[in-house]
Amino acid sequence: MKVVLKKGKEKLVAMGHPWVFSGAVGSVEGKPDERGLCGVYSHNGGLLGTGYYNEKSAIRIRMLSKGSSFTAGDLRQRLSLAIERRCGLLTSDTDSCRVINSEGDFLPGLTVDRYGSGICLQIGTAGMEAWRAVIIDSLSEMLSPSFIYERSDTEARKREGLADSEGLIKGSLPDPLIIRENGVSFLVNLVCGQKTGFFFDQRDSRALVRRYSAGRIVCDCFSYSGGFAVNAAKGGALSVAAVDASANAGKWLSQNAGINGADINFTEADVFSFLRQPGGGFDLLILDPPKFARHAGEVDRAARGYKDINLAGFRKLTSGGLLFTFSCSNAVDPYLFRQIVFSAAADARRQAQLLHVLTAGPDHPVNIAHKEGEYLKGLVLRVF
Ligand code: SAH
Predict the structure, then answer these.
(1) DSSP for residue 205
(2) pLDDT score for 119
(3) Catalytic pick from 38, 219, 221, 328?
(4) 133-167 burial, b if ≥16 CB within 10 A, otherwise e?
(5) How high is the pLDDT of residue 239?
(6) Nearest CA owner, ligand 1 atom 1
């Protein structure tokens, strides 16, 4: 199959952006092969590379190579390089991390997380689904995992015309499954936890919270299973409160507090209303909400959400207190996020110093030509 792009639409692809939107497609000749592969050409006939094509998706093509083919051998090599590049991350203190980060590892549509001796995989696109057997065989051979669990239950899959696919593919799940991150233990529920079970992207930021927590009154908003809260307690916080709307999050957080000997006071509540209630006096506040904007059309609404929680958050901080504030909406770019947070500080009549600018850790590499991959951003502010 041959796809020719409209004039001018070749630039991003030539620079290494892995997506071709439907509006960029000029003409299509022939049918995709059994793996959905197509050759991608500029309007003047120059080869841009090979990608996989999906008529059902607004992202019509995801690029796999700059050459005229993409083979099972190429896929295996990418998997093997990505695995090799994580070696330095895994230590006696950290036994789990992201192993394959989709576009960031030049494997669009594939996410693999390592949980101790096992792995959890998520296939997000029809084009990657076509390589399922190769992926599973290769990962089995390269990692010899004690289990392979699948959590392909994303919204993106529906847009691709795929049904959910979940469950154990190989081996058996440890019960309980306990992982180590920077010397802290976490129980993970792969079956009904969020995403693939645990948010590895915040590993470095959790370690930073731990460093700053000594002697502080800490509140972890949108706590999930307590990634930040447990680290705050481990770092010597005076007290740690955690808030999440999910009862399961509360249950898992209590278990995680228990296995780490941490004392955490969990409240099941909507953070928006929790922060509006009287009280506060926090010396360190974490705001790590879920994605507020799924696409560009939701950015304004998301901006209001970020503004709300940050404004209320600033009001709850003591003078000299620290705010760790995050956004994982890729549609909200880092500059806009700063503007929102800084204007919330101004509205709350607080002065602040910027101490750290945070992103996901190095097991979540970003292809610099693919700004959509840079979804997680965080700011650490000292507030007066
Ligand atoms: N900080 C966590 C990850 C947070 S994920 C960690 O380090 O692991 C986002 C969390 O926000 C989820 O647990 C979800 O249940 C919770 N959540 C979503 N909307 C919420 C709301 N309005 N109020 C409180 N919690 C909410």
Answers:
(1) H
(2) 97
(3) 328
(4) ebbbebbeeebebebbbbbbebeebeebebeebee
(5) 98
(6) 223
Cα–Cα distance for residue pair 384/345, rounded to 1 Å:
10
Q: Which CATH number belongs to the domain containing residue 328 in this structure? A: 3.40.50.150
Determine the pLDDT at residue 192.
87
- Looking at the structure, tell me whether residues 222 and 341 fall in a common domain: yes
Nearest alpha carbon, ligand 1 atom 6: 227
Please tell me whether the overall predicted TM-score, pTM, comes out greater than 0.90 for this model. yes
Distance CA 308, CA 377 (A): 18
Instruction: Look at residue 32 and tell me whether its pLDDT is greater than 90.
Output: no
Return the H-helix or E-strand segment holding 370. none
What proportion of the chain, given as a percentage, has pLDDT over 70? 100
Would the pLDDT of 98 be above 80? Answer: yes
Pocket test for ligand 1, best of 206, 222, 304 (most atoms within 8 A of CB): 222
**Where does the pLDDT of residue 280 fall: very low under 50, low under 70, confident under 90, or very high at 90 and above?**
confident
**How far is ligand 1, taken at its centre, from the CA of residue 369, in Å?**
30
Q: What are the DSSP calls for 30-61, one per residue?
A: S---TT-EEEEE-TTS-EEEEEEE-TTSSEEE
Instruction: Assess whether pLDDT exceeds 80 at residue 196.
Output: no
Per-residue confidence band for 193, with pLDDT thresholds at 50, 70 and 90: confident
378 and 285 in a common domain: yes
Q: Is the pLDDT of residue 10 over 90?
A: yes
- Provide the residue range defining the domain that includes 28: 2-65
Residue 38 bears catalytic tag = no
Residue given tokens 């019960």 in the structure block:
175
How far is the centre of ligand 1, averaged over its atoms, from the C-alpha of 194 (Å)? 10
Beta-strand ranges (E) seen in the chain are 2-5, 19-21, 25-29, 37-41, 47-53, 59-65, 97-101, 110-115, 118-123, 147-152, 165-171, 178-181, 184-187, 217-221, 239-244, 265-268, 282-287, 317-327, 352-359, 377-383
For range 163-188, the mean pLDDT: 96
Residue 157 domain-assigned?
yes
Domain identity same for 242 and 281: yes
